[in-house]
Amino acid sequence: MNKPRNAIAGQPIDTEPDEERRDAFVAAYFETGKQNESAAIAGVHRITAQKWVKAAWFEKAIRQLRRDRDKGLDARITKILDRSLEQLEERIEHGDRKVIVVGRGEHARTEVENVPVPARDLAIITGVLFDKRAALRKAPEEDENPEMSALERIADKLREAAIQQKAMRNDEAVDVDAHEVVGGAPADDVSDLV
User: What confidence score (pLDDT) does residue 65 get?
Assistant: First the structure.
């Protein structure tokens, strides 16, 4: 077999990836975004890497990694939000903890007291939470199969368009009820659009 001019000894030129090297290459590419660097990390020849990047499975693998990363980030953010909301509820109910100096001079001492949350802070908290709740309520339900539901939506629109076209082509006579207009302008002043 003829090797390319730039072939590196010890690095096989494959078009069919083995699972381990393929996964290593995809993970490295996902992290670095650089084809040659990813090929070196995974121990894959750069020509093989070029072919893999153009393969249909490669884009699917990258999309899957993005989805997995996004799910992980979503879970972490949700955990932080849950803890933050719990602390926020606690502070709204019992107030902010503040250190207060009681007394003067040698007899001064510090105490920790709960002080009501300032009205300005409550207004900001309420506004932000209200907006976020509204956005959540408006968010569409997630489809289990978004590709299929998109196709179904397109099919529904095409059906509606076909029904409308059929209705427009319908040459049948339509009965119309006439109504007398009382106190209106003379017939010459009436617009054709009304």
Answer: 92
Find how far residue 101's CA is from the centre of its chain. 49
**Which amino acid is located at 118 in the chain?**
P
Residue 113 backbone zone (phi > 0: left; psi -120 to 50: alpha; other: beta): beta
Token pair for 186: 């003379």
φ/ψ region of 54 (left if φ > 0, alpha if ψ in -120 to 50, else beta) reads alpha
Q: In this model, does residue 194 exceed pLDDT 50?
A: no
Give residue limits of the domains in the chain: 16-94, 95-139
Q: Which residues contact 49 (CB under 8 A, 6 or more apart)?
A: 25, 35, 36, 38, 39, 42
Q: What is the rounded distance in angstroms from the CA atom of residue 21 to the CA atom of residue 41?
A: 10
Handedness of CA 149, 155, 159, 165 (dihedral sign): positive
| pLDDT: which is higher, 134 or 183 | 134
- Which two three-digit tokens encode residue 168? 């427009």
Closest CA to 111 of 119, 120, 102: 102
> What predicted TM-score, i.e. pTM, was given to this entire model?
0.46
Q: What is the pLDDT of residue 84?
A: 86
